[in-house]
C-alpha cells in the first residue's frame, strides 16, 4: 500500500512539473542591430533579456521562455512589418526595447491592434505615455520629459539662459526639443534658434556653424547614439566649448562617452536613469554583462530591457498566461517594480515606469581610473520630479478628474 502511495505521489509530482513547464512565453527583442543605435541596444539588449530570464528562474516557475531578435533598421515600416509577422505567424507575446521613437510609435499601434504587450526601453518620446498611450504598452527607462527636466533644468540654473538646438529630424528629436524648450522657458531661459538635421548624418559642420554663429550660451543636441558622438567630436574640432558655448547632450549614454573618451567629453552634463557604477547591485549585474559583451558595460537601455523583462515575467507568472497583452500589462501595473538596477518604483496608469533619474558630469581624464570610469554624480532626481505629472500627459487612459 505504501509503495502504491509513493508511486502515485511520484507520478503526481512529475505531472505537476510537466504542467508547470507548459506556460509558453515568447519574447521579441526588436532594435537597431546595425546602425547608429546598435551600441546603445543591439545584441547587448538580447543578452540582457536572456540574463533576466535566467535570473528569474523562469523554468522553475513554470514558464517556458523563448527569445527572438530582429533589426528594425530605424524604419517604422520595417518595424511594424516585423511586429505583425511576430504576432500573427511566429507566436510572439511581447516586444521589448525598440529604440527610435518613430518605430516605437508604430509598434505601439500594432501591439494594441493585436492585443499583445509592448515594453519599451529604447525610445525617448514621452508621447508613448501621453496622447499615444495604450493599455498594451509600458515605457520603462527614460523619456524626453525626464531628460529635459534633468539636463535642461540644470543647464539653465548654471547660467545657460539662451539655447540653440540641433535636432534630429524625426519623432524623438522633435519631442526632445519640444520638452526641453518648455523646461528652459519655465526656468527663465530662451530658445533663440534651432535647425533640423537629417537622421542619421555624419556631417554636422554646417549645423554647428549656425549654432556657433547664433551666440547661444548652450547648444542643445536633440539627438542620440552615433549622431551625438559625431556632433560632439565635430564641436570639439570647431573649438566651440573653448569659445565659451556649452554643449548639452540631451540624450547621452555611457557607450557614447566611452567612444568619445573623457578627454573629448569632459565636463559634459547629462541625465541618465542608470549607470553601471551606481551601487553594488548595478556593479554586480554589469560585471556579469561585460563577460558576455566583450568587456562593455551595459547602457541604460540594456539595463532597462533586463529590468522590464524581469517585471513582465512576474506578471505572466501571476496570470499563468502571456496570451492577453492588456491583462499582462494591467498586472504589471498592479505589482510594484523592484529590481537591482532601478530599485523600487511603480508603473502608472499611463504606462510610465517611475524610478529615479541621475544628473551626471563626465569626469576629467585625470579623475578617471579606467576606460569605463566615466561619471561623477551631481544629483539624484526623484522619479516624482523627473517624469511628467500623470494628469499633464493627455493620456486617454487617465481620468483627469
From TrEMBL:
Coiled coil: none annotated. The keyword Protein transport does not apply. Gene3D superfamilies: 3.40.50.2300. One of its GO terms (biological process) is amino acid transport. InterPro entries: BCAA_transport, Leu-bd, Peripla_BP_I. Belongs to the leucine-binding protein family. This is ABC transporter permease. It comes from Methylobacterium aquaticum. The lineage of its organism: Bacteria, Pseudomonadati, Pseudomonadota, Alphaproteobacteria, Hyphomicrobiales.
